[in-house]
Amino acid sequence: MSFFAQFDFSVIAPSLPFLWEGLKFTAKLTLIAMAGGIFLGTLLALARLSSIAPLAMAATWYVNLMRSIPLLMVILWFFLIIPLLTGKPMGAETSAIITFTAFEAAYFSEIMRAGIQSVPRGQVFAGQAIGMTYWQTMSYVVLPQAFRNMLPVLLTQTIILFQDTSLVYAIGAKDLLKAAEIAGKNYGRPIEMYVFVALVYFLICFALSRLVKHFQARTAIIR
Amino acid sequence: MIQIDNISKWYGQFRVLTDCSTHVTKGEVVVVCGPSGSGKSTLIKCVNGLEPFQQGDIIVNAISIGDPKTNLPQLRAHVGMVFQHFELFPHMSITQNLTIGQVKVLGRGKEEAQQRALKLLDRVGLSSQADKFPGQLSGGQQQRVALARALAMDPICMLFDEPTSALDPEMINEVLDVMVQLAQEGMTMMVVTHEMGFARKVADRVIFMDNGSIIEDAATEEFFGTPRSERAQIFLSKILSH
Ligand SMILES: Nc1ncnc2c1ncn2[C@@H]1O[C@H](COP(=O)(O)OP(=O)(O)OP(=O)(O)O)[C@@H](O)[C@H]1O
Ligand SMILES: [Mg+2]
């Protein structure tokens, strides 16, 4: 019997709707953690760069803490500790979304901090000189440029985030990987399922990285 | 209009400005010159509070810059400033550069702001560039846009920090022409520049700075006639021999 004859990929087709549900959660988790992470990360970056010392210190502390704990630990701890603190159990999906947003915020904040610092100081002066307040200068002058300069890096981080979402498997949230595990068990064909979802992860990441290349070529602001 | 009273400023231990005082009355054009590192940029940035100072005070249009209760953004909205490196917003079109302040800071309607922008672009001779981006313009054109951006806010006075020193020689005049015109229309101006031709033509007074101090503050003819200080004489002879 040849090596390939041991496999039966015909089980993939009937499991597609089930896998699709898993992929939908993976996508939802990625998008929410990306949007929330960039938003909170930007606030963290502004806090770190602010002249208000306690604020800068708190933000630095938070970012460094998050970046020095393995993501899997954060996912597990958050899932286990919240019910103890609130007395109510929290669904694995909700827990995963909150954890990822809070965790990714630390990484996105480092990217946004570099982005903000890449905008010349003269731009801040120019905004202020026409009467803009701190927040106006940030939202109309600095952040749009920071965001553009960092778009490829932000997308790259999102690809990493997309891959990392598979860790929620540990708390039983039904993402693509979990769905593959369940389907594999049902059909008694785990290897086929894992091969298939690996292919799906690969294709999505590949497409996204092409997008990064495209943006790298396009978004450089003409100065 | 602009009253500078004994201001001093330190960067850490380093004293950048030492007891600088001067007064610019309404409609007056004052040129500030001096060697590199003498504190000209720092002084002019103190006038609209872009740089804080530790001693003395500056009164602009009866408002104290040093007073922590002063709403600086509100004051700056009516004090125009033009920078050495233009500092146009590179992610906005030329028109957007001219309307953003009007709309977001002054609260003007989009239509009105747009019309004002086009009028000013016409004035600096750049109507045809309205939809381009700063990166597509030459240095001289960018600086004229920067001038128009400041004028769009209807400033009561204008500050310039070496507006032509980053320009290729053939572009200097297109910017100076607009500035001369502005001066002749009675705009109150404080101009850091080494363009002595400009100073001779429109300045009422010339201030010479060295080492963070105002060494000379004299009427233009007087300054070019016989500067009192030796350092100003040396500086002038160097500049004018170019
Ligand atoms: N952020 C800063 N921190 C420390 N020192 C500074 C800072 N900015 C300027 N200086 C110093 O203050 C002094 C005055 O600088 P300033 O830019 O006002 O000089 P300037 O007269 O405008 O010179 P230039 O003709 O080169 O533009 C210089 O010695 C400069 O090195
Ligand atoms: Mg300077």
Give a short overview.
Helix content of chain A is 79%, strand content 0%. With 223 residues, chain A is mostly helical. The A-B interface holds A 120, 122-123, 125-133, 136, 140-141, 144-145, 148, 221-223 and B 45, 48, 50, 72-81, 83, 85, 87-91, 100-101, 104-106, 133-136, 149-150, 153.
Report on the structure:
Chain A has one domain (2-222): MetI-like fold, CATH 1.10.3720.10. Chain A has helices spanning 12-49, 53-67, 71-86, 92-117, 121-129, 134-164, 176-187, 190-218. Helix content of chain A is 79%, strand content 0%. By secondary structure, chain A is an all-alpha fold. Chain A is globular, with a radius of gyration of 21 Å. The two termini of chain B are 34 Å apart. Chain B has 242 residues and is α/β, with parallel strands linked by helices. The interface between A and B is medium-sized, with 21 and 32 residues. Bound molecules: adenosine-5'-triphosphate and magnesium ion.
CATH architecture verdict of chain A: Orthogonal Bundle
Helix-strand pattern of chain A, N to C?
A: HHHHHHHH
Give the percentage of residues in beta strands of chain A: under 5%
What value does the average pLDDT of chain B take? Answer: 94
Which structural category fits the helices and strands of chain B? alpha/beta
CATH topology of chain A: MetI-like fold
C-alpha Rg of chain A (nearest Å): 21 Å
Largest sheet descriptor of chain B = 6 strands, mixed
The number of helical runs of chain A is 8
